[in-house]
Amino acid sequence: MKALAIFVVLLLLAPFALPSFYLTLLNYIGLYGLVALGLLLLTGVGGLTSFGQAAFVGVGAYTTAALSTGVIELPQALSWTQHSPWLALLAGLLLTLLIAIVLGSMTLRLSGHYLPLGTIAWGISLYYFFGTFEQLGGQTGMSGIPAIEVFGHPLVTAREMYYLIWTFVIIAALTTQNLLDSRQGRAIRALRGGVVMAEAMGVDTARSRMVIFVIASLQASASGWLYAHLQRFVNPSPFGLQHGIDYLFMAVVGGAGQVWGALLGATVITVSKQWLQDLLPQLLGRTGNFEMIVFGCLLILLLHRSRNGLWGLVEQASARWLPKPARSRSVPQAQALPRRVMPPRGEVVLEARNVTRRFGGLVANNDLSLKVHAGEILALIGPNGAGKSTMFNQLSGVDTPTSGQVLLRGQSVEGRGSRAIANLGLSRSFQHVRLLPAMSVLENVAIGAHLRGRSSVFSAAWRLDRAEESRLLSEAAHQVARVGLQDHMFALAGSLALGQQRTLEIARALASDPCVLLLDEPAAGLRLREKQALGELLAKLRSEGMAILLVEHDMDFVMGLVDRVVVMDFGQKIVEGLPHEVQQNPAVLEAYLGGVAP
Question: In which order are the strands placed within the sheet that holds 348-359?
Fold first, then answer.
């Protein structure tokens, strides 16, 4: 907060100390930074690359230009919105919201390289719309845009617009930071861990993607509104694909995962472009877009040296040369979250009935049935390729059986999706660890408690969710301590050893307060004492009435812990029984234990 206060004071004093040229430059840094902040959420945090943000800047600019100048005649019922820049701002945001929802519903379903190509397509379409629609002035543009009035005073000069622009920027930066530091922010960050993990923790990934797409679009639209009233003139040129690439450059160069990195990137790109445009023609003896060549080379160099952008380098330098600021290492004490009523011991909680899963001609699971009871640990074992992980996916909603039924507490859940199944009380870990390495252990576990909160994006952005947030973090801290990772509570998840990361996944699963726990090779990578601690934890959960289904290759760990064993081979169940019975079964010895009696 000290750094923010100093930053705000410097912004307040800048108009009194800087000449008009640099004040104008600061205005444009603010306008570009507002768009880059949206890309921070969309690209840096959510992992969705967009080249079309400049088009949303154009929507905001052209909406206010058309309404405030009155060039477009509106129906009588809407005529009151004309000739008022502030009402034009509201209209522009509403229009942007509508366009963003329509475009997002089509574009965000794409993945891989198709997503950025989709943003290029609609970005170019909107750009040509601005230049083709004659009422918007075509390629010539629109002039005569009135000045914004604040308390009856028109903001005519760049110096007068300065404070309004940076007020928007500071509000956007603070609300973005607040959003990221919340339940909703963790849901957005979870997108980086993949759809399967996020949905299994109860995150509505489609909604989260749409939320950040809309927020980024609205911030770009607000930038366009400010731009139009700063310039008092608009034409299509600033809203094309090249400017969309520039905005993405700003976010990536500054540090696509950091709020203040977005503003740093906007500053560096804007100032560097101005300097290079003045300097390079003098060095090369001719004019041209040489600055883009330099930017391209510098970006490649930066990505080699610091994937976290310039802000990452700033943090490294400050950690080396400046004393570390004291950071709070305490978890807020809060009222415990409500607990799920566990089913009666012995009740069938999870059941697979004749589940078959085909992938073309390959049968991964063939007519497989099993039951897991409350207060029981059931092991699902078999050689590699037996179909165990595929079965886990059928049970947890990641995949849908070709035929057969999956019942959770008596409800048929096949085809309902992992988020709906998680809401009914099933949680899981993964064979290949799926964590967010740049987030702390506590924050990773808090993702598991996502379904137990109700805060909205708005309440998170304005910090109206602090009571709920304290309860969620307190629950996460309880689960971290429960699995024995309390000494690593505030460490980055990526810094833990593999065995500790697997334990962390169990804590995250427990944070959802499940009645059924699916664990995929939880003991892999654990040392002897860690396995003993894990066995004690699972035994304690069993005594509390939880149903546990685990896949594991460590037979010593399995046979000394579980109540029953199901053995699979080639997608089929070959044996089911007590551990000592399974160990002596000839079919198991042949298929799994190599035909040698223990």
Answer: 362-373, 348-359, 403-408, 411-412
* 207 exposure class (CB count in 10 Å sphere: 0-12, 13-18, 19+): exposed
Q: DSSP of 218-272, one letter per residue?
A: HHHHHHHHHHHHHHSEE-SGGGSHHHHHHHHHHHHHH-TT-HHHHHHHHHHHHHH
* Dist. CA 533–CA 31, nearest whole Å: 54
Q: Taking the CB of residue 87, how many other CB atoms lie within 10 A of it?
A: 16
Q: List the beta strands (DSSP E) in 382-430.
A: 403-408, 411-412, 426-428
Instruction: Check which CATH number belongs to the domain holding 141 and give it.
Output: 1.10.3470
Least confidently predicted of 51-60, 134-143, 222-231, 448-457: 134-143
Q: Tokens 């129906």: give the residue.
A: 75
Structure tokens at 559: 């046979």
Q: What value, to the nearest 5°, has the Cα angle with vertex 102 and ends 100 and 104?
A: 60
Identity of residue 473: L
What the block records as the tokens of 28 is: 């444009």
Q: 403 and 443 share a domain?
A: no
**pLDDT, tens digit (0-9, with 9 covering 90-100), for 346-396:** 999 999 999 999 998 899 999 999 999 999 999 999 888 889 989 999 999
Element (H, E) at 59: helix 53-69
273: tokens are 């472009």
Q: Residue 435 is encoded by which pair of tokens?
A: 């964590």
Residue 230 falls inside a structural domain? yes
CB atoms within 10 A of CB 368: 24
Q: How many domains does the chain contain in total?
A: 3
Q: pLDDT (tens digit, 9 = 90+) per residue, 292-308? A: 777 778 778 877 777 77
Listed in sequence order, the residues at least 6 apart from 50 whose beta carbon sits closer than 8 Å to its beta carbon are 39, 42, 43, 116, 119, 213, 216, 244, 248
CA distances to 299, 476, 478, 589 from 336, in Å: 48, 11, 10, 48
List the domain range (segments joined by +) for residue 214: 18-317
Same domain (yes/no): 443, 302 = no
Last residue of a domain, one of 511, 539, 556: 511
Token look-up 């009233």 returns 229
Q: Are residues 24 and 125 in the same domain?
A: yes
One domain, residues 78 and 219: yes
Dist CA 237 CA 227 (whole Å): 13
378 and 233, same structural domain? no
